[in-house]
Amino acid sequence: MYRWFEKYFAFSRSELTGICVLGVLLLAAWIAPYLYRAWSTPEDTALSAHIDDIERFLATASEPAPAADRIAAAEYFPFDPNGLAVVDWKRLGLSDRQVRMIKNYEAKGGRFRRREDLKKIYAINASDYARLEPYIRIKAAAIYGEPDSATVPSDGGRPPADRSREMVVEEKLYLDLNTADSLDLQALPGIGPVYASRIVRFRDRLGGFHQAEQLLDVYGFDTLRYDGLKTYVYVDTTKVTKIALNLADYAQLNNHPFISAKLANLIIQYRKQHGPYRALTDLLRIAIMDEEIFRKIVPYLTIAND
Predict the structure, then answer these.
(1) CA dist., res. 20 & res. 13, Å (int)
(2) Which DSSP symbol is given to 79?
């Protein structure tokens, strides 16, 4: 037995030395990760503290709280950005840095000829522009690059054609919503090509605006945008197209944005069961018709000449 054990498990001195070295290396490899984590803890802590310092600096640099305070305390009024005083820019909720960049732009000869030109100022972000856009009023002199009235003779010093062109611009700032095309509508504050197109499409489906407040029914239109332009628009109700209540079919009624598919069907069914409508108030006998819906649709209906 001893000879068998000695044959397979006996080691020379050099072999025993190699085994011991290998064991030490394996033990060191096993312990090394724990030692590294223990030794690197102060460095990681310092790095975390450094990252915290950077984050605090960035938060301070962005100044979220003061910006929010400025916007909350902003005073909105119609303004021409060309030559607007520093104090007025601050009334609108802009920071010293934003005002400084605007004034640098003007000092280099920059002019605001369209509302969108305010976006050229790097410091004016999308949210600032969105809240200021409805109040921007750029004078015709700025649009055409003409001198200010204070620096020219009383007749403007301009050719008659230029003066008449300026008058056209001024006239466009009081529009009939039922006759203005999309280009005319873009002259209104806060209205670009997208909203102008939406207004025209909605007006065509509606049959014309009965009152200016119906702009709020246009997709995406809000109170802020409407308040910015309501003094520049009116409606001529004689331009409203009406639906002959006793002749209209389901498709014609359902195409109106204020008449749902269910209501259109009930209007037709009531007419079939009770005969022609004698008065518009007969619609109130329909089960789902309430006074709010009635007031919205009645300007677009008629029983005359049926």
Answers:
(1) 11
(2) B
243-302 is classed in which CATH architecture? Orthogonal Bundle (1.10)
pLDDT (tens digit per residue) in 166-193: 444 444 467 899 999 988 898 888 888 9
The pTM (predicted TM-score) of the whole model is: 0.44
- Residue 47 has what pLDDT? 54
Backbone φ, ψ for residue 209 (5° rounding): -85, 135
For the cut 50, the answer to whether the pLDDT of residue 60 exceeds it is no
- Rama region for 174: left / alpha / beta (φ>0; ψ in -120 to 50; rest): beta
Please, what's the b/e burial string for 247-268 (b: 16 or more CB within 10 A of its CB; e: otherwise)? ebeeeebbebebbeeebbebbe
Q: How far apart are CA 269 and CA 147, in angstroms?
A: 66
Structure-token match 């639906």, residue found: 243
When mean pLDDT is compared across 46-50, 97-101, 112-116, 182-186, the lowest value belongs to 46-50
Residues 236/238/244/249 CA torsion (nearest 10 deg): -40
Angle (CA) 136-122-94 rounded to 5° is 55
CATH ID of 172-239, from 3.30.160.20, 1.10.150.320, 3.40.50.12500, 2.60.120.620: 1.10.150.320
Is domain 69-138 given the CATH code 1.10.3720.10 in the classification? no
Above 90 in pLDDT, residue 83? no
At residue 258, the pLDDT reads 92
- CA end-to-end distance (rounded Å), the chain: 124
Cα-based distances in Å from 119 to 31, 39, 76, 135: 61, 53, 18, 15
| Three-state secondary structure call for residue 176 | strand
Indicate the helix (H) or strand (E) that contains 302: strand 301-302
Q: What is the mean pLDDT of residues 65-94?
A: 80
Q: Where are the domains of the chain?
A: 69-138, 172-239, 243-302
